[in-house]
Inverse folding.
């Protein structure tokens, strides 16, 4: 599996980091996790044929995780895509879908075959020999999903946006790569929305992934990256990496 962190930023403007998106390539078959603003551009920097994208998993419907889906659809249409595109996400996808295709951009409807798959809180999808499972993340009132991809003994977990969440920590137990958000620094914050370095250190100590890549990085976190990485690593054996846009990780 080859993982490319397409976007590692947040909703805060950052010229170095676009919003959330991860490309997972398994035997030349790409799976896209989240499509925030800037992700289509990043995608075009790493794939030679955008019409290979046929599976898109959305974690939740905050703008920084889904806003480039519309531009991706337009690009797929203009690229002459004929194959079916599958989009997966929590059930609230229905309202978002109606807003996009019935209200805002009805001219996009029917341009190419696209099928919605609503995911329950604990669900599983098979894509060729890979399995994609989900659990709910802890992200305020938002119905959101963390994803785990398993393929031939290799495993990747993407936390999505989340506060520390027992189910995700268990989900990530012993994985090869945990891609976890670290949105803000330690200190006082709104409860049950995002994760701080000290909170992520506890998750790493529990899950003991081989590697962890920090994403969803606000400028304040990036500004003290060395300290953040040291806190997250703690005394674990896990390799701790600060994610950056277009970072490639072999799993
Ligand atoms: Zn969010
Ligand atoms: Zn976000």
């Amino acid at each position: 599996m080859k993982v490319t962190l397409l976007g590692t930023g947040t909703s805060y403007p950052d010229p170095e980091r676009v919003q959330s998106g991860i490309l997972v390539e398994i035997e030349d078959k790409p799976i896209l996790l989240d499509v925030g603003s800037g992700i289509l551009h990043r995608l075009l920097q790493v794939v030679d044929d955008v019409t290979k994208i046929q599976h898109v998993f959305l974690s939740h419907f905050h703008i920084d995780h889904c806003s480039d889906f519309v531009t991706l659809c337009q690009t797929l249409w203009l690229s002459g895509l004929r194959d079916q595109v599958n989009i997966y996400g929590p059930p609230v996808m229905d309202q978002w879908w109606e807003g996009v295709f019935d209200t805002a951009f009805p001219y996009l409807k029917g341009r190419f075959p696209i099928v919605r798959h609503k995911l329950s809180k604990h669900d599983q999808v098979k894509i060729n020999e890979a399995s994609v499972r989900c659990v709910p993340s802890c992200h305020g009132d938002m119905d959101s999903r963390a994803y785990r991809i398993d393929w031939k003994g290799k495993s990747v977990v993407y936390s999505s946006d989340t506060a520390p969440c027992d189910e995700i920590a268990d989900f990530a137990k012993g994985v090869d790569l945990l891609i976890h958000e670290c949105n803000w620094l330690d200190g006082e914050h709104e409860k049950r929305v995002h994760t701080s370095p000290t909170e992520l250190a506890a998750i790493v100590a529990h899950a003991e992934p081989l590697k962890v890549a920090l994403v969803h990085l606000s400028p304040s976190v990036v500004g003290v990256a060395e300290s953040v990485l040291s806190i997250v690593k703690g005394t674990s054996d896990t390799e701790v990496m600060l994610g950056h846009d277009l970072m490639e990780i072999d799993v």
Summary: Residues 60, 62, 139, 142, 161 surround zinc ion (ligand 1) (CB under 6 Å). The chain has eight helices and 14 strands. The first helix runs from residue 39 to 46. The radius of gyration is 17 Å.
